[in-house]
């Protein structure tokens, strides 16, 4: 299973780079840091969904707060039958289904994902609603670490802890780079794990590019009987797989030329 997931991750990384070749406005570095997380969720049988019924009542809700950094989800959704593969060749074109910032018109996306810092708050509302109905579904939220600079995020963190939203699993893409610099140079939030524990969260920290660790971490949080909201603190590398992006504090706004895309794909093993 782990080998198959690793092969999928390699395919998704290459497909994401090819999308960036077509749509230069996509945030390539942000999208590459979450590839293994998305692969584990969708191919590792840890997220309940139905491509033919995207509003299926028994689905787990997946709220992607860092919408700009989820372009790597496009090939996954296409592969699983949410929409046709021809859409991957039209990203950001006039009249295309898929844009640089996803919205709920795209099958598989639950919410509007343009304004950062609000996904966790929405997730808290959905989570509380499901608990009040005694539903067994989980709410997953994917958040970027740069979003932790938003005050609304910490309001949601406190709310979730206070109301014991044990069906809420937050996955933090801790790639340590925001728009214009390393996060620590803007506001140093270490230790993130301890801050969440103070606000009554269960925390598991993993290497966000290790398929096994991500899989076991999410599985453990799903199965946990601890009556607290859950955080998977996934330590990642922004621009993972592209050396020129991995070491660039401005990788968030970098645009790769077609030749750079070719070089990056050729360098992936």
What does this structure look like?
By secondary structure, this protein is of the alpha/beta class. The chain has a single domain, classed as Rossmann fold (3-Layer(aba) Sandwich). The protein is 39% helix and 11% strand. It is built from eleven helices and five strands. The chain has helices at residues 2-22, 28-32, 35-43, 73-79, 119-132, 151-162, 183-186, 192-198, 211-223, 243-246, 258-267; strands at 61-64, 139-144, 168-174, 202-207, 230-235. A five-stranded parallel sheet has the order 1-2-3-5-4, sandwiched between helices. α1 (2-22) crosses α3 and α5 packs parallel to α6 (151-162). The mean pLDDT is 96.
Attribute tags:
alpha/beta; 11% strand; globular; 269 residues; Rossmann fold; single chain; 39% helix
Write the layout of secondary structure elements.
Layout: H1 2-22, H2 28-32, H3 35-43, E1 61-64, H4 73-79, H5 119-132, E2 139-144, H6 151-162, E3 168-174, H7 183-186, H8 192-198, E4 202-207, H9 211-223, E5 230-235, H10 243-246, H11 258-267
Parallel strand pairs: 1-2, 2-3, 3-5, 4-5
């Amino acid at each position: 299973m782990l080998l198959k997931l690793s092969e999928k991750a390699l395919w998704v990384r290459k497909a994401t780079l090819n999308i960036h070749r077509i749509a230069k406005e996509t945030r390539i570095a942000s999208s590459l840091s979450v590839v293994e997380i998305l692969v584990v969720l969708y191919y590792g049988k840890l997220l309940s969904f139905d491509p033919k019924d995207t509003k299926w009542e028994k689905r787990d809700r997946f709220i992607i707060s860092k919408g700009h950094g989820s372009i790597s989800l496009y090939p996954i959704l296409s592969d699983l039958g949410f929409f046709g593969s021809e859409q991957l060749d039209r990203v950001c074109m006039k009249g295309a289904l898929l844009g640089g910032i996803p919205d709920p018109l795209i099958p598989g996306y639950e919410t509007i994902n343009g304004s950062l810092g609000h996904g966790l708050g929405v997730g808290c509302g959905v989570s509380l609603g499901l608990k009040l109905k005694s539903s067994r579904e989980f709410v997953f939220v994917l958040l970027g670490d740069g979003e932790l600079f938003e005050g609304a995020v910490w309001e949601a963190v406190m709310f979730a802890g206070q109301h014991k939203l044990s069906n809420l699993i937050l996955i933090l893409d801790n790639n340590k780079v925001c728009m214009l610099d390393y996060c620590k140079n803007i506001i140093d939030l270490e230790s993130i794990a301890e801050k969440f524990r103070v606000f009554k969260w269960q925390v598991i920290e993993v290497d966000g590019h290790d398929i096994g660790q991500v899989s076991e971490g999410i599985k453990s949080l799903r199965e946990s009987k601890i009556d607290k909201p859950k955080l998977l603190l996934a330590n990642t590398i922004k621009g993972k797989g592209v050396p020129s992006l991995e070491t660039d504090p401005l990788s968030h706004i970098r645009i790769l030329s077609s030749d750079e895309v070719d070089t990056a794909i050729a360098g992936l093993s």
